[in-house]
Amino acid sequence: MTRFQYDQAILAAYPNLVGGVILASDLHNSPTGEALGAEYLKEQQAAIARIGTTPLSEIPALAAWRTVFRSFGVDPTQYRSAAESLLRRLTKKGDIPSINTLVDLANLVSIRYALPVAVFDTRALQGTLTVQIADGTQRFTTLNQDETENPPLGEVVFADDSKAAFARRWCWRQSDDSAARLETTAAIITVEGHHATAQADVQAALNDLLALLPKYAGGKCTSALLGKTQPAI
């Protein structure tokens, strides 16, 4: 049975954390079709209009992630959260390239709420996927590369029981093994926040994902809102 959790050290260090998590199975990923493509483009245009000239660093959800990155020694202007990277690309380039149905669904919700949304393929997962503080022994394989590296002591990572890191710098980048590809049929999907209205925003984003997934990718979903009182699903 697939399992996801936050380590107690993470919950102690980040008491405002709200994590929305979906355990999805029987998914049907594919190249993004016309209907989703149109919905995604509409959301991109809405995000551009909503942000206007506001600096991304002043959006509360993104500002909170910058603070979190600094707390474990990462410069958030050098390594941006996944949500900030998407919105930076969108506001500078005018669009975000389509990848596939699952990735585009995640990115659509991410730019809507300025929250990082990740889709982790679970084929390589061994045991529980845990958000934890790296001890230097976790192994991360860079996306679309064979190179393996060890996240340094103190960095926040997603790692399984075999010490395989599925994400580095919390919500900066996923590993090659965890990326959602056309063959993906089962996934752990996360949406996370630390800002003042994170509880409401993460719940809304989770609800949107639960509506969009069956519409465009089918599957069966179990979900939960995690934090101090419920650390695992």
Write the layout of secondary structure elements.
Layout: E1 3-6, H1 8-13, E2 18-27, H2 34-51, H3 60-71, H4 82-93, H5 101-113, E3 117-121, E4 128-133, E5 139-141, E6 148-149, E7 156-159, E8 164-168, E9 173-174, E10 187-193, H6 198-216, E11 218-226
Parallel strand pairs: 1-4, 5-8
Antiparallel strand pairs: 2-10, 2-11, 3-10, 4-7, 5-6, 7-8, 8-9
Helix pairs in contact: 2-5, 5-6
Features:
single chain; 233 residues; alpha+beta; seven-stranded mixed sheet; four-stranded antiparallel sheet; 6 helices; globular
The low-pLDDT segments are: none
Radius of gyration: 16 Å
How would you spell out the order of helices and strands? EHEHHHHEEEEEEEEHE
Helix content: 25-40%
CA-CA gap between termini? 10 Å
Q: How many beta-strand runs?
A: 11
Briefly note the structural class of the backbone.
alpha+beta
Q: Can you tell me the overall shape?
A: globular
Alpha plus pi helix count: 6
The averaged pLDDT comes out at 97
- Approximate strand percentage: 15-25%
Please give the largest β-sheet.
7 strands, mixed
